[in-house]
Specification:
Blueprint: H1 2-17, H2 22-29, E1 35-38, E2 41-48, E3 54-58, E4 63-66, E5 71-74, E6 103-105, E7 112-117, E8 120-125, E9 130-133, E10 138-141, E11 160-162, E12 169-174, E13 177-182, E14 187-190, E15 195-198, E16 218-220, E17 227-232, E18 235-240, E19 245-248, E20 253-256, E21 262-267, E22 273-278, E23 305-307, E24 317-322, E25 325-330, E26 335-338, E27 343-346
Antiparallel strand pairs: 1-2, 2-3, 4-5, 6-7, 7-8, 9-10, 11-12, 12-13, 14-15, 16-17, 17-18, 19-20, 21-22, 23-24, 24-25, 26-27
Length: about 350
């Protein structure tokens, strides 16, 4: 009996000694590197043993953690890329329910991310010219310039660049960094003149459609008749009609059926508009018009492919200009839209 109890105790002890740690199981499941840094100290890191047990490693004096090799290397090589900033005191802590060693993208940014350690979020940033890959959980080269934070890498100080995801803001280049700037209320960024211009009626920028309107008021979306905007605190919030219906500006609501041929005001310059009947979802034209008359809002030509709002977050979607309307398209699973080339390509 004593022999049996002793054997059970020994087996239980052995199981406890080699129980897989959550951090190691997490990294193995996602095929991530089995080592990660201590975000508060470049000379200390963690690695998983063959039995998936987490071990802390402290580098010798003059050496730091090497993320490529998972070992300690000479500090003279400039290997320490950590910000070594204090953990953030956030109202909503992204690492509150995460295990140590998890890398999380920082919302609204493409180079910034967090390293979770002891349920605290340590802010980090990828080098200029790279971006944070949420799938690989690491920084990768931004070869296709997908990250807005890299727009100014080769630009002069003081250069103004358009923000593809917002018509009422732009980027100011400073020391190679892109700093987002807002145009004044009721104005938009003119991509040709590279300045902010008045847009009190939302004629050139959908983000200005709700200026002066009551909360809860509905506004037509001239680019998509199957959706509309609801005004909240002067800002338009996009909503979608139920399947099989469209937004009727006369009824100020969604009605059954498909979009009917209608008259759409299309901005042609900064100061004038032209009114033309362009058939939606048809090749017919109600009145003789020139080819340019069916350009899409924003001056896009027939057949032009346009990045989707909040690109690159919605990197698999884009708009196609067709009969005066910007139609939403998708590249398909495993692909993304290359805004520079205007084509869909594998998301590798």
């Amino acid at each position: 009996m004593n022999v049996t109890l002793t054997a059970v105790v020994l087996l239980t002890t052995a199981a406890l000694c080699y129980a897989a740690d959550a951090e190691c199981k997490y990294r193995k499941t996602r095929k991530l590197a089995l080592h990660w840094p201590d975000p508060s100290n470049c000379t200390r890191y963690y690695r998983c043993t063959n039995r998936s047990v987490k071990r802390e490693v402290v580098c010798a004096e003059g050496k730091v953690y090497n993320a490529k090799t998972g070992k300690c290397s000479n500090n003279s090589e400039g290997l320490c890329k950590l910000t070594l900033a204090m953990p953030l005191d956030l109202t909503v802590n992204p690492c509150a329910n995460e295990i140590s060693g998890v890398y999380l993208a920082q919302p609204g940014y493409c180079r910034n991310f967090y390293i979770c350690s002891q349920n605290q979020a340590y802010p980090q940033i990828c080098d200029a010219g790279s971006r944070f890959n949420s799938t690989a959980r690491t920084c990768v080269p931004d070869t296709n310039s997908e990250c807005w934070q890299n727009k100014c890498v080769s630009e002069k100080n003081g250069t103004y660049l358009p923000n593809e995801s917002s018509c009422s803001s732009f980027y100011l280049c400073s020391a190679g960094e892109a700093i987002e700037q807002e145009c004044g209320n009721g104005s938009y960024f003119n991509t040709t003149k590279r300045i902010c211009l008045p847009d009190p009626d939302g004629q050139f920028c959908w983000e200005n459609l709700c200026i002066g309107k009551r909360d809860g008021e509905f506004v037509q979306n001239i680019m998509d008749c199957y959706s509309y905007y609801v005004c909240v605190a002067g800002k338009p919030i996009q909503q979608y009609c139920p399947e099989g219906s469209y937004f009727d500006s006369a009824e100020i609501g969604c009605v059954p059926g498909k979009c009917l041929p209608n008259t759409t005001e299309i901005p042609t310059t900064d100061t004038t508009t032209s009114t033309t009947d362009c058939i939606i979802e048809s090749t017919e034209v109600t009145t003789p018009v020139t080819e340019a008359a069916c350009d899409c809002p924003g001056g896009y030509k027939e057949g032009a492919l346009v990045p989707f709002p909040n690109y690159p977050e919605n990197c698999d979607k884009y708009y196609e200009c067709s009969n005066g309307k910007l139609e939403e398209k998708e590249c398909g699973e495993g692909n993304r839209f290359n805004s520079a080339l205007g084509v869909c390509e594998p998301d590798v």
